[in-house]
Specification:
Length: 220
């Protein structure tokens, strides 16, 4: 018994997956293909994808946003959880990675739900705000370049409706956020983001120790 979050060794992690993970075959196949990719470490964990899909279902979300697509695992997991009229505006800059994503979205029959914007995410967010789409999104997932996380947070918070939920990935950053000697730009930004959100009374907050750390911020 423990009154704090326990660590997961390989055997306990595998047990967690064996009694919890309900991964559709299309997601499993995408995960297997991505595992052979040179940047495979950028893909989210399968239990995180399932967790975010559950959040989207709990909220009854229909209008969502994703920053950082990679090969499309998170967007596919969320698209499968959305109703048929649900949408994801998915932001990325890499044609090669997202070509894999497009192939799996099509195979899963959810391509009509996903609007891929191949442009810098800040430009897409600013365009959405200029179009008057503030306070209209139900859910957003941020998993793009870490040095822009505060900029993404600021704009996504404007785009979320009151009661909308933001999920921010990699907030524990393999433990480096708690190692003062680590001072690279990404780690420094994640520390700043974590501190900023902790003090921001515009949101309700929980940092969840799933995968590489996932912050949930509910817009008040």
């Amino acid at each position: 018994m423990s009154n704090k979050t326990i660590g997961l060794d390989s055997s306990l992690y595998n047990y967690l997956l064996s009694v919890s993970l309900r991964e559709p075959d299309i997601l499993f196949r995408l995960r297997e293909e991505t595992a052979r990719h040179s940047s495979a470490n950028m893909q989210i964990a399968p239990e995180q994808g399932q967790f975010m899909a559950l959040l989207v279902q709990l909220m009854g979300a229909t209008k969502t946003l994703e920053l950082g697509v990679f090969t499309g695992y998170s967007s596919l997991a969320i698209a499968l959880a959305l109703p048929d009229n649900g949408t994801i505006i998915a932001c990325d800059v890499n044609e090669e990675y997202t070509a894999i994503a497009r192939r799996y979205w099509q195979a899963a029959g959810v391509a009509h739900k996903i609007d891929l914007r191949l442009a810098p995410a800040l430009s897409t967010l600013d365009q959405l705000l200029a179009e008057g789409q503030a306070n209209t999104f139900d859910f957003a997932f941020i998993d793009a370049d870490k040095t822009n996380y505060l900029n993404y947070y600021d704009r996504v918070l404007q785009l979320l409706r009151p009661g909308g939920l933001m999920a921010i990935d990699n907030v524990l950053w393999s433990g480096q956020v708690a190692q003062p000697e680590v001072q690279d730009d990404s780690t420094t930004m994640l520390r700043q983001l974590n501190q900023t959100l902790h003090q921001d009374d515009r949101i309700s907050l929980s940092m969840v120790p799933i995968a590489d750390g996932l912050t949930l911020a509910l817009k008040r």
